[in-house]
Specification:
It is a single chain. By secondary structure, this protein is mainly alpha-helical. It is 45% helix and 0% strand. Helix 3 packs across helix 4 and helix 4 packs across helix 6. The longest helix is centred in the middle third of the chain and has 25 residues. The protein binds iron/sulfur cluster. Iron/sulfur cluster (SF4) binds next to loops.
């Protein structure tokens, strides 16, 4: 696996995981309430969105704003290559759990990559590089490693590292845009 995977979402390579895994609250962002784990009524059987061209007009601005940071396509293509949750509902709980974990992994990677662009002191640079490597295992992520991720120490180590950068104005500017 290369240094770091793409953090750019590619919906064409996904199975609309955000359209089933996330909960919606009826609001300016979403026209309906929807529970996590329930497919959006606008989702077509080919995993496409029936109102893709009119999301804003139909009250689904939240869909346009959401970004899985590339976690969705990795879940479908790398972690669960046999995934087809619409035709095999029993797959959904584990896929959703893994999707949430990998989305968090990508979120942390995004922050660390922003930090890595800064003129960090040597020690911090090395820590940053190590954390990025820890979030980018050579053998990729598997259901088990994603399940363990939340209970492991990586999120906390990233948190401590990032908190240590708070005084760097450049980092604040990059991560609060
Ligand atoms: S409106 Fe379309 S993009 Fe939004 S959750 Fe439903 S199917 Fe997905």
């Amino acid at each position: 696996m290369s240094d770091v995977v793409s953090l750019k979402a590619d919906c064409s390579q996904c199975q609309a995981l955000c359209c089933v895994a996330l909960a919606f609250d009826r609001s300016d962002m979403f026209a309906i309430d929807k529970q996590a784990g329930v497919a959006c009524p606008n989702l077509a059987t080919d995993y496409g969105c029936k109102i893709h061209e009119k999301l804003g007009q139909r009250g689904f601005v939240g869909c346009q704003k959401y970004d899985c940071l590339g976690a969705g396509q990795r879940i479908v293509n790398e972690v669960f290559p046999e995934a087809d949750w619409m035709n095999n509902a029993s797959q959904l709980p584990v896929i959703m759990e893994a999707f949430a974990a990998l989305r968090r992994v990508h979120e942390l990677l995004e922050l660390l990559l922003a930090a890595r662009c800064l003129p960090l002191p040597d020690g911090d640079g090395a820590i940053c590089t190590q954390l990025i490597a820890d979030l980018s295992p050579a053998s990729g992520w598997q259901p088990k490693t994603l399940k363990d991720f939340g209970d492991g120490d990586i999120p906390q180590r990233v948190d401590v590292f990032l908190k240590g950068l708070r005084n760097l104005t450049e980092f604040r500017n990059r991560t609060t845009k």
